[in-house]
Amino acid sequence: QEYTLIKLEVLKPYPEVLKSFEGKPVSFVAATLRPETMYGQTNCWIHPDIKYIAFETVNNGVFICTNRAARNMSYQGFTEKDGDFKIEKEILGQDLLGIALKSPLTCYPKIYSLPMLTIKEDKGTGIVTSVPSDSPDDYAALLDLQKKPAFREKYGIEDDMILPYKPVPILEIPEYGNLSAVHVYDKLKIQSQNDKEKLTQAKEMVYLKGFYDGVLLVGEYKGSKIQDVKKNLQAKLIKENGAVIYYEPEKTIISRSG
Ligand code: ZZB
């Protein structure tokens, strides 16, 4: 499976946990199949309880992701020696929250890393870039933080890291309008990021329609159908140094039971 790996660059001055990397670019990296939605990023998601690592790449500075993702990258030419990478630092997700980042294409010049409790450790990099206009999971998690000051306080998230960030209309999807995730969230009466079944249903609804019939509302491919320009947008992100390609090995099912 080929993913676009988005580089969310840590802004200076570096927070205490990343001070040892001063002088080098440091990026949180997020795997996505939806490069065309990067115009609508409002934040980055980190799981507070997942262990992340920092390791040095040959061409892209320091990357932050799960150990598992770093191992995969080490077989894809990201490190000096094939299959080898050096853990520069281990960092618990909760210590990576509230960090200011710069991400490609989004209209927000500065976005923050925020907590999401439904991130899977064994998928992608364990870091997710958030597009609440078009991803119901992201919209649900963002609303949870916006609606619940106690949730923000628990993780030391300040109001200005979250309250100014609104979903951005970037894709027009027939029947769902220009904020498809908001539309299905309301329609299915989703209550929170923990509404698993409804969120799965919501994702299926917007995914299919978005991919085939969605039309871009912003950027140089404004007016084009997503399926026609997805590859061009991926190429643009890579050319402008905002992303690289990352392959996730197919899950091997090793089961001899039953
Ligand atoms: C930006 C984006 C914009 C995403 C959107 C989705 C949507 P899939 O398709 O099932 O393989 N993701 C990536 N890694 C993780 C993880 N470890 N835990 C939880 N979620 C993760 O899922 C790939 C998508 O799941 C990725 O694409 C990422 O969010 C998220 F408008 O990135 B996406 C309707 C979905 N819309």
The end-to-end span amounts to: 28 Å
Task: Return the string of H and E elements.
Answer: EEEEEHEEEEHHEHHEHE
The major sheet is characterized as:
10 strands, mixed
Bound molecules: ligand ZZB
Bulk shape: globular
Describe this structure in words.
By secondary structure, this protein is an alpha+beta fold. The protein has helices at about 65-75, 135-145, 150-155, 180-185, 195-215, 225-240; strands spanning about 1-10, 25-30, 45, 50-55, 60-65, 85-90, 100, 110-115, 125-130, 170, 215, 245. Helices cover about 25% and strands about 20% of the residues. The protein binds ligand ZZB. Ligand ZZB binds near residues 33 and 203.
Key structural traits:
258 residues, alpha+beta, ten-stranded mixed sheet, single chain, Isoleucyl-tRNA Synthetase, domain 2, two-stranded antiparallel sheet, globular, binds ligand ZZB, 12 strands, 6 helices
